[in-house]
Amino acid sequence: MPAIKFRGVDFLEFDALLSDDERLVRDTTRKFIEENLVPIIEECNRAGRFPRELVQPMAELGYFGASLKGYGCAGMSNVEYGLVMQELERGDSGVRSFVSVQSALVMYPIYAFGSEEQKSLWLPALQKGEKLGCFGLTEPDFGSNPGGMRTRARKVDKRYVLNGEKMWITSGSIADVAIIWAKVEDENDKVRGFIVETDRPGFKADDVHGKWSLRASVTSGLSLQDVHVPECNLLPASSGLRSPLMCLNQARYGIAWGGVGAAMACYDCALQYSLLRKQFRDQPIASHQLVQEKLAWMITEITKAQLLVLQVGRLKDADKVEHQHISMAKRNNVWMALECARMARDILGANGIADDYPIMRHLMNLESVKTYEGTHDIHTLILGSSVTGIDAF
Amino acid sequence: MKILVCMKQVPQKDAPLELNETGTWIREDVSYEVNEPDAYALEEALRQKEKHGGEVVVITAGPARAAQVLREALAKGADRAIHLEDHAFVGLDPFNTAQAFFAAIKDEKFDLIFTGLQSDDYGYAQTGVILAELLGWPHATIIMQIEKSDSGIRVKRELEAGYFQFVDIPLPAVLTIQSGINKLRYATLIGIKQAKNKPLRKVIMPEVQSAIGGNLQKIERLYVPQKAKNTEIIEGPPGEVAKKLVDKLRNEVRVL
């Protein structure tokens, strides 16, 4: 079977909805991923290795904090940023996760809630990839319900003392800086964000081993034991749980585009495979009705997902997007991507489980993507709450 | 150094091609990309500018879609662009294309003009050479390296069988650049953003019409090669069959 090269997916003249610049952003990123990530990703996935060598090139292309303005950031529109996410995840969800965390969960909160000093200190270094970041919200016992977090910040003189455990933290052990969310005891347990340099005494990061998903990105647990930070490390404009949820909204938006990318990779691979693979009377399996049904389902869902996330992006660019819109896009697009990966795996038969093809890696990655940044079910409840006005959680 | 880079938009290398209705060219609804040697020519121009300062201008001739080539070049670092925008440039012969470029740049003073060695679609490798002739400038082809020298430039040409030739050329000059001379850069996101504010001059057909004559190239018919398979059974006594077989292998198939 000859090597299968990604050709892009555009059934409904989706490209006609994009501007020339948006297409250029997409095509450039696609080329970068094809030439730099695709050749090494299966090896990274096998070895459970984060391709750190791509941090510098990605920084130079402007992928970190791409939608932020100033501080060396590219100032891309939300649709352009989304197309970058799509192409990164076409390569690998783990690499896209790394960029999402650096951009939406580390740079964004500093940008949105930070002081001018914090911004000028951290944003240029994070943009250039000289510093890497992680985001500490989830705890071992608090995932979907972050409001229950146990991490506490106590004010002592002009310092805060942080104590707690964070879990499932992307880039935890490679980060130079962590955005830690904690309840501040002197402020009636209000959740606030802190910039915590990871070399401070009492800060520890240990990697999660035995992951069957997102193997090309680092996942860690963080432990903070009496970690002292100066009070200027508090993100001054962070206020309550709403602040980390605003960050998650940024990241979820990117994930909704990423889902399209992973689904495209699986669909295009399965389509090409089905035309080459022959069974029964020397006919390609693409001529079989049951295979065609799968391909038809996939291309329909991918096309719907493209239109959905593009509209969410256009709303976001017009400053009209609401969190339930992003929930709909994240929930739908990751679900459909996972279903596409499973169908593509079926079409590839036994070949679908080997890493000669990208399918099984995407499938396993997407199991995480379906769960993180608001599980599929939690987004269902957000949509339910939005249309009924009644919270079911 | 002020460098002009002539670029062309061509069908993507791995695009599935279909013949048009008249069977004289391919259907236009394929994906397009920058002609590969032209991308190397642009990269070399940007590197020369980074070393010696100056300006990089890009030019293309083609319909509206060809502007994508220029936008990408501007995003990679070219300073400004010239677009000879007309569908008539699709399939125009190299002589007339060079004439049109010549007419469009007559008021400019370049030190160097680069083209890719040849185009991925027609592959004449002539436009740059003819342009040099029209300008009355020296030219060199298949360039693998460019160094500035006291009297102009010293270039390395790729010859056959692994041989290279070094040539000293005075400026101004035209060079046709070989793929692989350097490593291509990607357009950065900031570059794409900045490209929007860079000048792009559109040249319409009437401005260069007088320089162009009738198209010297006409494609009569384009077709997919027919695969033919003939089976012939040679009958008769073994000795004769062997004799005939040897004769066929020697004189018809010519493998003996």
Low-confidence stretches of chain A: none
Report the count of strand segments of chain B. Answer: 11
Which consecutive residue ranges of chain B, at least 5 long each, have pLDDT under 50? none
CATH class category name of chain B: Alpha Beta
Based on the structure, what is the oligomeric state of the protein chains? heterodimer
Your description of this structure?
The complex is a heterodimer of chains A (393) and B (256). Chain A is of the alpha+beta class and 393 residues long. Chain A folds into three domains: 14-127, Orthogonal Bundle (Butyryl-Coa Dehydrogenase, subunit A, domain 1); 133-233, Beta Barrel (Butyryl-CoA Dehydrogenase, subunit A, domain 2); 242-388, Butyryl-CoA Dehydrogenase, subunit A, domain 3 (Up-down Bundle), CATH 1.20.140.10. Chain A has eleven helices and eleven strands. In chain A, strands 3, 4, 5, 6, 7, 8 and 9 form a seven-stranded mixed beta sheet that branches. In chain A, strands 1-2 form a two-stranded antiparallel ribbon. In chain A, a hairpin with a 5-residue loop joins strand 6 (177-184) and strand 7 (190-197). In chain A, helix 4 (78-91) crosses helix 7 (242-276), helix 7 (242-276) packs parallel to helix 9 and helix 9 (323-348) runs antiparallel to helix 10 (359-371). The longest helix of chain A has 35 residues, at 242-276. The radius of gyration of chain A is 21 Å and the shape is globular. Chain A starts with 19 loop residues before the first helix and ends in a 5-residue tail after the last helix. Chain B is α/β, with parallel strands linked by helices and 256 residues long. Chain B has one domain (2-211): Rossmann fold (3-Layer(aba) Sandwich). Helix content of chain B is 29%, strand content 25%. In chain B, the strands form two sheets. Chain B has a nine-stranded mixed beta sheet with strand order 9-8-7-10-6-1-4-5-11, sandwiched between helices. Chain B is globular and about 80 Å long.
